[in-house]
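The material for today's practical consists of a large collection of protein records. Backbone structure tokens are a discrete shorthand for how the chain folds in space. An example says more than a description, so a record of this kind follows:
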Amino acid sequence: MRTKKEEDRMPEFSLTRRSFIKGGTGAVIIASCLSAVTPAGKGFEFQSPQAVGKNVYVCPPCGLDCDKLTFDQPGTCPQCGMTLVRADGTGGPPVVSVLLFDGAEIIDFAGPWEAFGTAGYLVHSVAENLDPHTMVFGQKVVADYTFENCPKSDVLLVPGGGVSKVASDDRVIQWIRTKFAGVRYVMSVCTGAFLLAKAGLLDGLDATVTYGMEGDLAKAGKNINVLSPRRFVDTGKIITTAGLSSGIDGALHLISKIDGLGSAQSAALGMEYHWTEKAGFSRAALADRYLPDGLQYGNARLRGAKAEMLSTDGDTDHWEVRILVSEPGSPAEIADLLRKRIAANTGRGSMSSGSRNRGTPHFSSTPTAKHTNTSEVRWNFTDDQGHSWIGNATVKPAPDPKGRFILQIRVARELRNAGLRQE
């Protein structure tokens, strides 16, 4: 067993990049283990062996001053803790190109970027030009490279967001096609699948996309088989993922394909991200898809009503939503409106609609009122998989403010509905 004194003398090679950045003392601890040479400029701009020599190593770009240093032997950067790579790029880790454009969703590329970076991959961004691009929510980003000078890479990441404009940009679509030919893997996140579809890369393949856009993706190319609910779909070279955070799962899955399950698990732990190889969660599988109108998207958008969200929660087998309604102005009117909106879901079984009821909802023969000024609606229906569901809704006056009402709606699969029957 080592004494504390002996442990204090040991170089902290096991510290992560975050440990070094937070502590700021990493350079003091292991500076003697590596010999710094001369500034090398931008860390990711690989140079020819003739220009840098056979045994010159650099720190992958991390935004610290160590990006400008070179080293004469492999190891770990004494300032940021990242694994050094050869300056000429030979024998280095996989390289990931991230497409950027105006309206790109931040988490679509930031989440996978974090996963790939944590796994030790080299990640850079590419855009049509080097002007600042405005992401969703106003973040400004300047790409590392343009289409003309971007380096060769192993992976192309295509994020989603507001893609309608960029999908009509022939130069971007052609670049995706060209880049596809030279990489090992292509991964889309969210509506980035539409850019792959526009490039003709999804024709005849299985794919997935963010919740509510499945039907649109199926029509965006030739014989695209959209699978939902799915966190990601792997067809070999192309991986499509569902919305937003599912891009992290897709990236970790891709890391496991390239470097093995252990590398992906280590990256997930380094990110403090709960990940399993068979990611089970899918937004499209949640039971709120059986609520009427826009309620299934986590919003209080009951058509014909003026309302605000109080709570919305559940899982794949049941869901409960409570909204504060100010219009219509009575429980009976609200209940009548709700029946109309539930009935309007009939036949809306296409994946683009969000709701997946099959057939006609059946209401209780006579609406009941348990208490004065309280209305209730009960119905049952069958989903697109043939499972039986029942729904229950009550409208009660809100305690405050006066003149408003609380509408509570619950749906549950047959195996979970005993409580609804008894109440």
Remarks:
- The first helix runs from residue 4 to 9.
- Confidence is low (pLDDT under 50) at residues 1-43, 347-355.
- The longest strand covers residues 318-327.
